[in-house]
Design goal:
three-stranded antiparallel β-sheet; mainly alpha; single chain
Length: 191
């Protein structure tokens, strides 16, 4: 995912909301706290879109808590078995968990950002072989007359893929189809 103003993945990731706790009173901004008119009082907690949170946090008007998709509970589950976590259900709007994580890293201090970067990288590396393997064997999984127990696990994994993983899945599947078509039209495929 690129950090580009016109990139749809970037727009969707920045539209995710994070909880902010305001440090000071902010006049005439009560609408940020669910439609109330008037001032936004200090210590008020509000869900703010990430694109707006950058300005509020870096201006030192508020602090934020790490969103639930990157909480200790999710991190523990990812450390135990990264492939069993449904990343698509961790964040809405297309399930861009990796993109949202990159945006959150921009708000964290160096140590916390490095830790989150490690979680994102380790998770991606652990899940990538399964994504590629399923993309290569997707057609053969559904060619069988009835679903097998392995097929149920594979289908659950596919449903839980993040948007980035789904994009890689599609690219790998297209690549496998093109490789098969090339092989069948080459000299070796005719033998």
């Amino acid at each position: 995912m690129e950090d580009d103003y016109y990139n749809i993945e970037s727009i969707l990731a920045e539209n995710q909301k994070i909880q902010c706790t305001f440090k000071i009173d902010i006049p005439e901004m009560g609408h940020l706290d669910g439609g109330k008119a008037g001032d936004l009082k200090a210590l008020t907690k509000a869900q703010i879109p990430l694109w707006m949170a950058y300005i509020i946090i870096f201006s030192d008007y508020a602090d934020f808590t790490v969103p639930p998709p990157f909480s200790a509970r999710v991190r523990n589950a990812l450390n135990a078995e990264p492939r069993s976590v449904r990343l698509s259900s961790q964040v809405g709007q297309g399930g861009l968990w990796y993109g949202f994580g990159r945006m959150i890293m921009n708000l964290l201090n160096d140590n916390s950002a490095k830790e989150l970067s490690g979680v994102l990288t380790t998770t991606f590396r652990a899940r990538l072989p399964e994504v590629i393997d399923q993309a290569q064997h997707f057609a053969s999984l559904h060619a069988a007359a009835g679903p097998s127990s392995g097929d149920a696990g594979a289908a659950a994994f596919r449903e839980g893929m993040d948007g980035t993983e789904r994009e890689l899945f599609q690219l790998a599947q297209d690549s496998a189809k093109k490789t098969k078509a090339w092989y069948e039209t080459s000299e070796r495929g005719r033998r």
